UniProtKB/TrEMBL annotation:
Native species: Salinisphaera shabanensis E1L3A
Record-annotated membrane-spanning stretches: 6-24, 31-51, 57-79, 104-130, 136-156, 187-208
Domain of life: Bacteria
Name listed for the protein in its UniProt record: Conserved transmembrane protein
Entry keywords, A to Z: Membrane, Transmembrane, Transmembrane helix
Amino acid sequence: MSALAAFGVGLATAAILLTLVWVIQLFTRNAGLVDVVWSAAVGVIAAEYALLGDAPAAARILLAALALTWALRLAGYLAKRMRGAPEDSRYAAAREAWGAKADLYMLGFFLFQAVAASILSIPFLVIAYMPEAPSLAVALTAIAVWFVSVVGEGMADAQLHRFKQNPENRGKVCAQGLWRYSRHPNYFFESLHWITYVVLAIGAPYWWATLASPVIMAWLLLRVSGIPTIENKKASEKREGHDEYVRRTSAFIPWPPKQ
């Protein structure tokens, strides 16, 4: 199968999965499931490309292993976090703002998410169709980047979860562990994760196309749906010590706090 046809399969897969989520939220009135399924869909697309591509088996197996493990960890964490919780404030606010057309607009948003998943998955396509397997040095470097990013994001998620579980921390800002050095270490490591495939694709004919994914992900998290939606809150909604935490702590890249 050609790379273009494989891309079509990936896009169709994402669109079908997210349309199913849209149908489910018609009954549950909770759109938060889209975050779980979106993460899983990206992993599924990577597996599809690995099966359909004509790159050496070593490259495709490594691609599938890295992407699926990342996707399953993230989707599992998000599913656990949303279990029994009310609808995420982002989607609740959108539903209220859209009014009577909320369901229709939500479908459009979900399909946009499917397109975004396909675009972000382009590095998987490049790797699945590269003519030669990456060298041992390149593969080990990619694995090292992947390990640091996935373990780092998992640690950040676990530290925040433990902090929130402690009743004594209610209304306070988490400034422990990785959160002492970055206000959003999970976002930093999520962006770093996409560098994995830039490294793994070194030597591929369309290697340059893999650069788009980490740039797009960082832009989304820094400027669109990540940090802005969390930090642009009313003064009454801010946690105790929020302003001082913002003043001394790096927004994205982990860095020693200001004195």
